[in-house]
């Protein structure tokens, strides 16, 4: 995608700043609960609750676990310039992040 | 008049009122409340616990407690959409929220429109985002009032005419005053009380009520029988399962509502007030606990059906108000003092989101309309003053909604707002990742999505309430017409209007973007930097908070 890149001091070539991590795909798993034909029926019941209800309630922990997995697995991703090494200007910070990425 | 309930309710209401005013001195607010970072975002320093209580109290509103059981009571399984909605929302918004927080922290953005302004350098686009946010939030605040009023009427404050609305006005006036005084700190502090009460009330109800009515199995069976009886239009009222025609509606409504939630000012305000990316990440894991509560609460609608509870006749409209069904259930099944606690939980549950919503809308007004068009050189102190005043205006605008529109439509009002706010998704959420979409495309797409969405809502009748227009958000596919062509002729399947309008918006935005890029039309100036989207608290390039 070649958008008309705006003029910017010290323009950077590391694209849009997007970080790809395959673990992030886990976040899509809870969307499976939108496939209604898979659970829109009565049995088997759990403590009297029809399948429709307890199946969807079961997705609450599933969703939380999916987020937790991504949280743990992407914990070490560098946030920009978390090092307090006394480099105050934006451009210095940028070069430090791009250095890190090359490694 | 239910005196015991009223006394308990009033005592708890008094407690949160005191908290609301005391909040102005909480967490070093002191004299610094004359900056939007402080008044409108609580100093951007809420940690994990405060954020959890506040955002939980913000997202799970009186709408949750009143309208969702009412919808289940009236129509069955479709009302359960609120559960998948609040389950898929966290994984869905996890990454975009982090980007939004970081870029806002670096540049000192207070609203989503601030971000759009910085990302595209376009006043017009920022204005559209801001005005959409304000207009969509109004009915959402009104919905909180409906929840509050349902409780007040159940306690016997159920007079006709303007007198019937008086208790509501008083409650809202108090809320308006302490929000004016303390800003976001007020709902943040009150949220502790609100959420605490809600957890107690729902847990007790979830343990006690099912056994009293013969267990969940029996409850679902008898609710199923009750729903099978013919309703106002001769067809069954509903079903405890989805039907062939409303499954798509159920899924798209849940998805659309989740996407809309990301864009709402009250969500963004709650998130931008948090201290760090880590706080947001932890909360995205912990907030689903509220969804369990919501699921249980929704099923209380079936207990109400089984118990034979009848909604109270609202003396202002002369019609049964289905929103009272949950309060009535508590009124009948529990001792008065406990019902009073439950009512206070709902009442305070209305105040927290109403306060945050009005602050979010006031921030939008101040930053993206007042400062952009009225007083370009506004100082931070003037901004804060303006936002305080705007929060009052927004609240009383919402009161006007209640006075002039049938409360029966509370949930649909919010759904209209949802359709509207969804139209800002390309400009806000997509722009967090790429600015490939062109300003012109975003603007024209917004107009198309908004126009078509509102038109479709206008064409939807509601036979049950005898309304020819704005009868809900479920569009029957056979009625879908593209300039006279009916692509789904004969199909009875229903779909949520919001996603249809959003799809049109997106297609138009992409087409115009391709054309605009082909002709090399300027696409504005981007003040953000790729690294901004990953900045964490403590990073040297974040903007100092509340500096004049």
Structural topology:
The complex is a heterodimer of chains A (103) and B (548).
Chain A: H1 51-73, H2 90-102
Chain B: H1 3-22, H2 36-39, H3 48-59, H4 62-75, H5 82-107, H6 112-120, H7 123-154, H8 161-182, H9 185-212, H10 215-228, H11 247-263, H12 265-272, H13 277-286, H14 288-307, E1 313-314, E2 319-320, H15 325-333, H16 336-374, H17 380-404, H18 410-422, H19 425-428, H20 439-459, E3 474-476, E4 494-496, H21 497-518
Antiparallel strand pairs in B: 1-2, 3-4
Helix pairs in contact in B: 1-8, 1-9, 1-16, 3-9, 3-12, 3-16, 4-7, 4-14, 4-16, 5-6, 5-11, 5-13, 5-14, 6-7, 7-8, 7-16, 7-17, 7-18, 8-17, 9-14, 9-16, 10-14, 11-18, 12-16, 15-16, 16-17, 18-21, 20-21
What can you see in these coordinates?
Chain A: Pfam families: DUF3311. Chain A: The chain crosses the membrane at residues 20-39, 51-72. Chain A: Residues 76-90 have a biased composition (Basic and acidic residues). The complex is a heterodimer of chains A (103) and B (548). Helices cover 35% and strands 0% of the residues of chain A. Chain A contains 2 helices and no strands. Chain A has helices at 51-73, 90-102. Chain B has one domain (3-434): Sodium/glucose cotransporter. In chain B, helix 4 packs across helix 14 (288-307) and helix 5 (82-107) packs antiparallel against helix 14. Chain B starts with a helix and ends in a 30-residue tail after the last helix. Classes of the chains: A mainly alpha (103), B mainly alpha (548). Chains A and B meet through helix 1 and helix 2 of A and helix 5, helix 10, helix 11, helix 13 and helix 14 of B.
């Amino acid at each position: 995608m070649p958008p008309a890149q705006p003029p910017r001091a010290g323009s950077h070539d590391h694209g849009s700043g997007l970080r790809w991590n395959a673990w992030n795909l886990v976040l899509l798993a809870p969307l499976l609960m939108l496939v209604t034909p898979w659970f829109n029926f009565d049995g088997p019941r759990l403590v009297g609750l029809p399948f429709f209800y307890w199946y969807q309630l079961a997705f609450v922990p599933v969703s939380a676990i999916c987020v937790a997995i991504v949280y743990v697995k992407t914990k070490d991703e560098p946030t920009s310039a978390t090092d307090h090494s006394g480099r105050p200007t934006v451009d210095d910070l940028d070069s430090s992040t791009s250095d890190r990425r090359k490694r | 008049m239910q005196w015991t309930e009223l006394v308990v309710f009033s005592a708890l209401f008094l407690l949160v009122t005191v908290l609301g005013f005391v909040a102005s001195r909480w967490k070093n607010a002191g004299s610094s409340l004359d900056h939007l970072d402080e008044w409108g975002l609580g100093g951007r320093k809420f940690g994990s616990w405060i954020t959890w209580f506040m955002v939980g109290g913000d997202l799970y509103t009186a709408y949750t407690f009143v309208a969702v059981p009412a919808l289940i009571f009236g129509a069955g399984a479709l009302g359960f959409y609120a559960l998948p909605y609040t389950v898929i929302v966290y994984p869905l918004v996890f990454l975009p929220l982090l980007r939004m927080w970081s870029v806002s922290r670096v540049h000192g953005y207070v609203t989503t429109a601030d971000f759009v302004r910085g990302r595209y350098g376009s006043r017009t686009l920022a204005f559209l985002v801001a005005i959409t946010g304000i207009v969509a939030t109004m009915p959402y605040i009104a919905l909180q009032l409906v929840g509050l009023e349902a409780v007040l009427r159940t306690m016997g404050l159920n007079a006709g005419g303007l007198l019937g609305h008086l208790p509501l006005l008083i409650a809202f006036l108090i809320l308006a005053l302490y929000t004016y005084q303390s800003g976001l700190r007020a709902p943040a502090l009150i949220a502790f009380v609100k959420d605490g009460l809600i957890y107690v009330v729902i847990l007790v109800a979830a343990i006690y009520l099912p056994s009293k009515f013969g267990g969940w199995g029996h409850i679902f069976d008898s609710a199923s029988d009750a729903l099978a009886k013919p309703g106002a239009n001769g067809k069954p009222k509903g079903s405890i399962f989805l039907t062939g025609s409303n499954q798509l509606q159920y899924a798209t409504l849940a998805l659309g509502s989740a996407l809309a939630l990301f864009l709402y000012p009250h969500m963004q305000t709650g998130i931008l007030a948090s201290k760090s990316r880590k706080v947001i990440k932890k909360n995205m894991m912990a907030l689903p606990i509220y969804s369990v509560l919501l699921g249980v609460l929704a099923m209380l609608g079936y207990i109400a059906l089984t118990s034979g509870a009848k909604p109270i006749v609202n003396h202002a409209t002369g019609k049964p108000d289905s929103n009272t069904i949950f309060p009535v259930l508590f009124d009948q099944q529990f001792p008065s003092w406990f019902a009073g606690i439950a009512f206070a939980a709902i009442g305070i549950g209305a105040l927290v989101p109403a306060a945050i919503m009005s602050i979010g809308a006031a921030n939008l007004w101040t930053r993206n309309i007042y400062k952009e068009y009225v007083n370009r050189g506004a100082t931070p102190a003037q901004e804060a003053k303006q936002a305080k005043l705007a929060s009052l205006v927004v609240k009383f605008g919402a009161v006007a909604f209640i006075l002039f529109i049938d409360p029966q439509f509370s949930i649909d009002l919010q759904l209209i707002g949802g359709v509207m706010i969804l139209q800002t998704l390309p400009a806000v959420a997509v722009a967090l990742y790429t600015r490939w979409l062109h300003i012109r495309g975003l603007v024209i797409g917004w107009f198309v999505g908004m126009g078509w969405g509102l038109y479709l809502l206008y064409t939807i009748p509601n036979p049950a309430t005898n309304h020819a227009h704005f009868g809900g958000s479920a569009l029957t596919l056979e009625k879908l017409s593209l300039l006279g062509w009916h692509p789904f002729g004969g199909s009875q399947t229903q779909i949520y209007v919001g996603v249809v309008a959003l799809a049109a918006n997106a297609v138009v935005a992409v087409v115009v973007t391709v054309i605009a890029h082909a002709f090399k039309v300027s696409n504005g100036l981007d003040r953000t930097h790729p690294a901004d989207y990953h900045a964490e608290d403590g990073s040297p390039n974040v903007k100092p908070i509340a500096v004049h």
